[in-house]
Amino acid sequence: MRDFWPLLMAGSIGAMGVQTAVAEQYQLLVGSYTAGQSQGIYRFGFDSAKGQIDAKPLQVVKSENPSWLTLSKDQRYLFAVNENGPGQKDPVGRVSSYAIDPKTHELSLINQVQSLGNEPTHSSLSGDASHLFVSNYSVAEDPGGTLAVLPVGADGKLKTVVQMSSHPSSRVNPERQMSAHVHSTVSSPDGKFVFSNDLGADKVFVYRFDPKANPDLPLTAATPASVQLPPGSGPRHLLFSADGKHAWLTMEMSAQVAVFDYRNGTLEQTQMVDLAAGQPTSDKAAAALHASKDGKFLYVSNRGTANQLLVFAIDPATGHLKELQRRTVEGDHPREFSLDPSGKFVLIANQKSNQIVVVERDTQSGLLGKTVQKLPMDAPSDLKFIVRQ
Q1: Rounded Cα distance, 63 and 350, in Å
Q2: What is the tens place of the pLDDT at every residue in 296-347?
Q3: How would you list the strands of the sheet with 256-263, edge to edge?
Q4: H or E element that contains 246
Q5: Could you please report the per-residue DSSP string of 83-141?
Q6: N or C: which end of the chain has fewer CB atoms below 10 A?
Q7: pTM, whole model, 2 decimals?
Q8: By C-alpha distance, which of 385, 379, 312, 318 is closest to 345?
Q9: How many other CB atoms sit within 10 Å of the CB of residue 155?
């Protein structure tokens, strides 16, 4: 049974018979910051024919600062980092696990554990779904950011942290790089390696992942153990190509995208793309990046005063990027965005202007078109679609 529901649009009957168009009704999960009016995680319906998010949520799950959402591959479970820290309502960084009802998609809390660090900002699952990698960013210099490794039970229940890793900082930028700030961590396509992007160190740290060798210490430093990025660049998010041969990395502080060839735990840089070349520092705040399902286009958000979404064509042989378009996000601070499952729309979470903006996308050219919806929402931070069949 399909977990999204076909909606038949109006058709016409003529000499050629019945002509119909089929749309899909999906569900959208939205993470948010809760210092203002937002209550936590929101579950909405989404119409892929019109590019419309339902005005009223199907469910609101109260949670403190669930800023990043991670779905299991089978979409039976959802993991949310609770980006808490000193000075907030809840000063303790946490991670929450939820079960997703297979028919209704309703979320129900399984358990919550501490991340053993401040401001956990990202999480991802290992290739075998046995462990969750949590990036404790830590705004303050002391104690600094860490990578936490949490085992995950077959029932989706989180266990306590079994391993912590920290990194020396570059100290290039005295305001933002005096200590480690782990921004995100992802597995390699084959699941054998883990890459941790540290904005405070100007490096991507590389680990071998082998929980069978040592369940208590599943990560060990790879050789080489890190990838050096330009001083003061601030690596943020890493994305592998669908074929596993290339990778792209946003560097927040320099507003750049590094392109790599990937092979067996090694990243070799082949291109560097500027998102805000010649622009003031206030225009430099690169954030999210996502590729289209067909692997032809890469989309990158740049925040700051630029507040743009950039569209690139991907060279299939090299992974190199060619800029096609710069489009305003029509808001402030696009922390995250998502291509809807149909590929016809891009949804943008404008955190500081308190809106989710839905923009048309041409699936052939990759270009972004007109805005079809602006849904008011306080401090949206992440967008994930439930598309399980």
Answers
A1: 20
A2: 999 999 999 999 999 999 999 999 999 999 999 999 999 999 999 999 999 9
A3: 235-240, 246-251, 256-263, 266-274
A4: strand 246-251
A5: ---TTSSS-S-EEEEEEE-TTT--EEEEEEEE-SSSSEEEEEE-TTSSEEEEEE--SST
A6: N
A7: 0.93
A8: 385
A9: 11
